[in-house]
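WARN retry 2 of 3 for item q-0093 after timeout on previous attempt; input resubmitted unchanged.
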Amino acid sequence: MLVSVHRVGPGRIYVRIARELGGDGVRVLRFDFSGIGDSAARHDHLGFDKSSIAEAQEAMDFLHATRGIEHFLCF
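OK item q-0093 returned
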């Protein structure tokens, strides 16, 4: 079961984690799933359980194609 948490996380923890890791030289991509935060809503009526997986895969495919990144940690 996938659960969506407020886009910045409790106490903005996701923002702090991303900035800390980025400051240590780790490449970080933090994004909002469609319909959350500033991201536009989907128009295909795909449920969050499927769309979130597809969007995460699209983000990883983009990073692989543009930056050559092959290993990912998602949280």
